[in-house]
Design goal:
This protein is of the alpha+beta class and about 160 residues long. Helix content is about 45%, strand content about 20%.
Length: about 160
């Protein structure tokens, strides 16, 4: 069977169309992979930061119980001395007697620094400072008697 002249002219166009489709598909797959990797990498930081919210909720509950028992909120100094960074550290400082009086201690080593101040006799302010990625930019979370833990630093800070 003989190939018609117009069929020979169409073949290069078919090849070019296939090449364009394959290149487009590869670009799309690359973009999806980049997006998936970015989300995966951020999930680790989000998981590390979640410690702060959980511990601030427990500190809030401990402060409310302490107030019911003693009629006042308890200020407790920053523990550990600095925000730990990427690695977890022991929850230790010279303020341990305050945490003991409050009746709160984390279940394990921490990635954040915790502190409680009492700005007025009817309220407290609990703060968690974390540097989960170790870049020196601290992520800050705050709670009080009437406000659950809330992130106050920009989203891109871990």
């Amino acid at each position: 069977m003989a190939v018609e002249p117009h069929d020979q002219q169409r073949r290069p166009h078919h090849r070019l169309a296939w090449v364009v489709m394959i290149v487009g598909l590869l670009v799309l797959v690359g973009l999806l992979a980049k997006h998936a990797w970015t989300r995966f990498a951020n999930m680790a930081m989000v998981a590390k930061r979640s410690e702060a919210v959980g511990n601030l909720e427990h500190i809030q509950q401990a402060q409310i119980a302490y107030f019911k028992a003693h009629g006042e909120y308890l200020a407790v100094g920053a523990t550990p001395q600095r925000a730990p960074g990427q690695a977890q550290t022991a929850f230790e400082s010279e303020h341990m007697d305050g945490w003991t009086r409050l009746g709160w201690k984390p279940d394990s080593m921490v990635r954040c620094q915790y502190e409680v101040t009492v700005p007025t006799p009817t309220n407290f302010r609990a703060v968690a400072r974390c540097d989960a990625d170790g870049d020196g930019n601290v992520s800050v979370f705050v709670s009080s008697r009437d406000n659950p833990p809330k992130r106050t630093s920009p989203d891109e800070q871990y």
